[in-house]
Amino acid sequence: MEGNQIRERQLEGIAISKARGVYKGRSIRTKENPIEFLTKTKNKKAIELLEKGYKNVEIAKITGFHQNTVIKNRKAVFNT
Q1: pTM for the full predicted model
Q2: What is d(CA 27, CA 8) in angstroms, rounded to the nearest whole number?
Q3: What is the rounded average pLDDT of the residues 53-58?
Q4: Whole domain around residue 57: which residue ranges?
Q5: CA-CA-CA-CA torsion for 71, 74, 79, 80, nearest 10 degrees?
Q6: d(CA 42, CA 73)
Q7: pLDDT tens string 11-51
Q8: Which of 74, 77, 68 has the alpha carbon at shortest distance from 29?
Q9: What is the separation, in whole angstroms, between the first and last Cα of the chain?
Q10: C-alpha span between 55 and 50 (Å, rounded)
């Protein structure tokens, strides 16, 4: 029951914030152009390593990227 009250108060707060224009929620995806994304120097390094056959985990450790960013690089290069 208390959990329901907390959720109700949370939803009220969100509704008030949305009415004031403060709360917009999480933005979906990046608005960055794929070409701009791939031409960054760190991404170029990741692409070179991908072409050499390194695994996603290895590239993430070398470049300091998250594995999802490495996967994004792989999809952008090899699926186009």
Answers
A1: 0.56
A2: 24
A3: 93
A4: 2-78
A5: 120
A6: 11
A7: 999 899 989 988 877 777 767 777 888 888 888 899 899 99
A8: 68
A9: 52
A10: 7
**37 residue type, one letter:** F
Domain count of the fold of the chain: 1
| Whole-angstrom distance, CA of residue 56 vs CA of residue 24 | 33
Handedness of CA 10, 15, 16, 18 (dihedral sign): positive
User: Taking CA 54 as the corner, what is the angle to CA 52 and CA 29, rounded to the nearest 5 degrees?
Assistant: 105
Two structure tokens written together for 62: 């070398």
Nearest to 34 by CA among 25, 42, 43: 43
Number of H helices, E strands in the chain: 5, 0
Residue with structure tokens 């300091």? 64
